[in-house]
Amino acid sequence: MKYVIIGNSAAAIGAVQGIRETDKEGGITIITDEPHHTYSRPLISYWLEGKVADDKMYYRDKDFYKDNNVEVLYSRRAEKIGKTSVTLDGGEKVKYDKLLVATGSKPFVPPMKGLDKVKNQFTFMTWDSAKAIKKKVKKNTKVLIIGAGLIGLKAAEALYHLNADITVVDLADRILPSILDVRAGEIMQKHIESKGTKFILNASVEEFSASSAKLTNGETVDFDILIVAVGVRPNTELVSEAGGKVDRGIITDDTQQTTIKNVYAAGDCTVSHDCSSGTDKILALLPNAFMQGEIAGKNMAGNEAHYQNAIPMNAIGFYGLHIITAGSYDGEEFVEEDAQKEQYKKLVFKDGLLKGFILMGDVARAGIYTSMIKERIPLDNVDVELLKDRPQMMMFGRQRRLEKLGGITVKE
């Protein structure tokens, strides 16, 4: 059996492990357009600030591919998917029996007038982009970041530790709108501003010159470096051009099979089913990518496995203030906050279930909330007041406690 994987991040690693659980001998070839051994993309901001050394960036140790008998084609681009082969840049073809597309996503750079005049412009999604930025940053370097989402603010945090002068511009009226509600966003924004980072919201760039940006609100921001972090787009072209179904992301079933025979897909390039909201969406999360890849690998090797119970989830910190969010925010809300301590808790209930939460500052018991959402544990099985105040195992009934602690099922 010949397995080919396009991509070299979390989904690819999951697939290798999934394949090797069943098939120890089949050939595995990985195609990647980057020159690096598999690394953890969420660590690039910590690398930029100097918190993580080069040798700690890797997602698996240097012998992982050798130990799993994997051939890696570095700095090669997959150009076309055929029925039995993948065509690379240069025309070389790599044959496959089973193919996994784990191509992730790419930065979205919207058309902005004068952007072509800016020499020192960067995105912030790869280790190489972080390396390029690091070469240009010195103390008091003026950095303009377009985008107050997850990527933009992780770039800002890293540059803060390098003593840069940072301004963040966003068209939205608040920061981190994809994961925080209005109040949580206010607390986080105030925290970040206290460190010296400036925000200009409800504004976009009207026009760039070589080293300044004229904004739609009339302000002008001078900069030495520009980082564009307004969002990402899934890399779906290979599958769509091969005739596979794509709707924002690549469409798969819960075995990660695409609509093309023998072709699977996993990770940020795919659409997942969010069990907390009952909707289909792209869940660009490293754990999600790994698990999807592992499920794909198992099915590619002849096992039957299904990926279910996916939910949006983020565990992240900005300038030392930590947040964990998960699930859907559509429902009845329980909110508790202590602004002085920069602590915020929001639980969302609907249809007799916990559907989502936001925790800021005190995030110690997020695991219990996450488990309740994924396992769809009915609220009538728990002490709801204890759940709101200080969740612990004792809030569950005796049978559920035994099941969670030891997989024991008893009759009450």
Describe what you observe in this structure.
- It is a single chain.
- The protein is of the alpha/beta class and 412 residues long.
- The chain is built from eleven helices and 27 strands.
- Strands 3-2-1-7-20 form a five-stranded parallel sheet.
- A hairpin with a 2-residue loop joins strand 26 and strand 27.
- Helix 1 packs parallel to helix 8.
- It is globular and about 60 Å long.
Q: Can you count the beta strands?
A: 27
**Global morphology:** globular
The number of helical segments is 11
For the report, how would you describe the main beta sheet?
5 strands, parallel
Mean pLDDT: 93
- Secondary structure category: alpha/beta
Q: Kindly report how far apart the N and C termini lie.
A: 50 Å
**Oligomer state of the chains in this structure:** single chain
Radius of gyration: 23 Å
Determine the fraction of residues in helical runs and give it as a percent range.
10-25%
Low-pLDDT residue spans = 404-412
Percent range for β-strand residues: 25-35%
Give the strand order, joined by hyphens, for the main sheet.
Answer: 3-2-1-7-20
Topology, element by element:
Elements: E1 2-6, H1 10-22, E2 27-31, H2 44-49, H3 64-67, E3 70-73, E4 78-81, E5 85-88, E6 93-95, E7 98-101, E8 105-107, E9 121-122, H4 127-136, E10 142-146, H5 150-161, E11 165-170, H6 182-193, E12 198-201, E13 205-208, E14 212-215, E15 220-222, E16 225-228, E17 232-234, H7 237-241, E18 246-247, E19 249-250, E20 263-265, E21 272-274, E22 279-281, H8 286-300, E23 313-318, E24 321-327, E25 332-338, E26 343-350, E27 353-360, H9 366-375, H10 384-389, H11 398-406
Parallel strand pairs: 1-2, 1-7, 2-3, 7-20, 9-16, 10-11, 10-16, 11-12
Antiparallel strand pairs: 4-5, 5-6, 8-17, 13-14, 14-15, 18-19, 21-22, 23-24, 24-27, 25-26, 26-27
